[in-house]
């Protein structure tokens, strides 16, 4: 589904990502953990080219992301092509980023109607069902600013799902939430996981990563230090840096 | 205090002159504002363009207008346009074009500031659902930036109203020019200039008030 090979990115002399390679299969739920500044959010944003990468490649369902294949070097892909790819990949942000000038349901309709050109009435049907799924059926016509953080993030998840994505990316979806609101958001993500939605989740919630992820990637200093099934990473990590990080965050 | 004897009553019989002047002033103001918006909205957006070749010419326009006096722009357009481009315009049209070009630069800066004031995350969210830059701008960024732009737009409008008096230098019959002519006839400069200031206050201050009301409302909502 998603294939990353020798991905690298830097700002001037500052290396953000170095030589990242990872394969993500259909139905896989991958959690990316690691200290702040380890490059995990940047990696996530490179996957749908919200952040352009410099070296290596990202392929989504076989299509090169962000660039055009060319015999002589690399050229940026046409904006249209990249947009089309992004429309197939859902993204949920740390700060929700709902559109504040629209009601909750309008937030859900915006992409399918404006980008995919779908029939408004049909999408509305689907949007209502999604709001029911995330427990916001009575907030359809509310403005995002009147919702709690947890409700806003659930609405943001519904907005991404309204596009019927093939893959979901979560960028620290609970980091901006009050502790008592974290659970309601995580349970929706967990439900999506059990339904077989492939996803990549950058998170600081270790117990959640352990329960939901089929694979855990530990990043530090812009590279993947270790990856494996959660039981392995959390119980007996091979790498000393992984052990040190986990002992810091788990105790 | 000097013992000047004010005689405002004498002005009353000349009210049609002031009315005529005020109408010309308003005409110039509205037309120049419309032209300024027409120029400034796209220029403000283009100043954010990724391509340097798009940004460069619009930046040259904005900066050269902001760094030269409006009066110089007006006389330049009045005297140089006909010679350079063979474009002969009446004094009033010159005034509208000059103030429109002048205001366009300021409107562009307002637009740019408004767009920059919108949270970066909004652009990321719009992109993440597959929107093109143009669609994101139209559907997500500008509607949010637009609200923030309203108070400075109104201020700019009030500015043009005052700048329209510069038209008297190229003999446009707006309020100041009409007043000067009247002074030449009835020799009452103190009354006439005082009354002129009052008229300007009356037609400008409501806009300033309106702008402040908008600003307060936006702050309450934020």
TrEMBL record, chain A:
<dbReference type="InterPro" id="IPR050086">
    <property type="entry name" value="MetN_ABC_transporter-like"/>
</dbReference>
<protein>
    <submittedName>
        <fullName>Amino acid ABC transporter ATP-binding protein</fullName>
    </submittedName>
</protein>
<dbReference type="InterPro" id="IPR003593">
    <property type="entry name" value="AAA+_ATPase"/>
</dbReference>
<keyword id="KW-0472">Membrane</keyword>
<comment type="similarity">
    <text>Belongs to the ABC transporter superfamily.</text>
</comment>
<dbReference type="Pfam" id="PF00005">
    <property type="entry name" value="ABC_tran"/>
</dbReference>
<dbReference type="InterPro" id="IPR030679">
    <property type="entry name" value="ABC_ATPase_HisP-typ"/>
</dbReference>
<dbReference type="InterPro" id="IPR003439">
    <property type="entry name" value="ABC_transporter-like_ATP-bd"/>
</dbReference>
<dbReference type="InterPro" id="IPR017871">
    <property type="entry name" value="ABC_transporter-like_CS"/>
</dbReference>
<keyword id="KW-0547">Nucleotide-binding</keyword>
<keyword id="KW-1003">Cell membrane</keyword>
<keyword id="KW-0997">Cell inner membrane</keyword>
<feature type="domain" description="ABC transporter">
    <location>
        <begin position="2"/>
        <end position="246"/>
    </location>
</feature>
<keyword id="KW-0067">ATP-binding</keyword>
<dbReference type="InterPro" id="IPR027417">
    <property type="entry name" value="P-loop_NTPase"/>
</dbReference>
<dbReference type="GO" id="GO:0005524">
    <property type="term" value="F:ATP binding"/>
</dbReference>
<keyword id="KW-0813">Transport</keyword>
TrEMBL record, chain B:
<keyword id="KW-0029">Amino-acid transport</keyword>
<dbReference type="InterPro" id="IPR010065">
    <property type="entry name" value="AA_ABC_transptr_permease_3TM"/>
</dbReference>
<feature type="transmembrane region" description="Helical">
    <location>
        <begin position="192"/>
        <end position="210"/>
    </location>
</feature>
<dbReference type="InterPro" id="IPR000515">
    <property type="entry name" value="MetI-like"/>
</dbReference>
<dbReference type="InterPro" id="IPR035906">
    <property type="entry name" value="MetI-like_sf"/>
</dbReference>
<comment type="similarity">
    <text>Belongs to the binding-protein-dependent transport system permease family. HisMQ subfamily.</text>
</comment>
<keyword id="KW-1133">Transmembrane helix</keyword>
<keyword id="KW-1003">Cell membrane</keyword>
<feature type="transmembrane region" description="Helical">
    <location>
        <begin position="28"/>
        <end position="46"/>
    </location>
</feature>
<comment type="function">
    <text>Part of the binding-protein-dependent transport system for glutamine; probably responsible for the translocation of the substrate across the membrane.</text>
</comment>
<keyword id="KW-0472">Membrane</keyword>
<feature type="domain" description="ABC transmembrane type-1">
    <location>
        <begin position="22"/>
        <end position="211"/>
    </location>
</feature>
<keyword id="KW-0813">Transport</keyword>
<feature type="transmembrane region" description="Helical">
    <location>
        <begin position="67"/>
        <end position="87"/>
    </location>
</feature>
<dbReference type="Pfam" id="PF00528">
    <property type="entry name" value="BPD_transp_1"/>
</dbReference>
<dbReference type="InterPro" id="IPR043429">
    <property type="entry name" value="ArtM/GltK/GlnP/TcyL/YhdX-like"/>
</dbReference>
<keyword id="KW-0812">Transmembrane</keyword>
<protein>
    <submittedName>
        <fullName>Amino acid ABC transporter permease</fullName>
    </submittedName>
</protein>
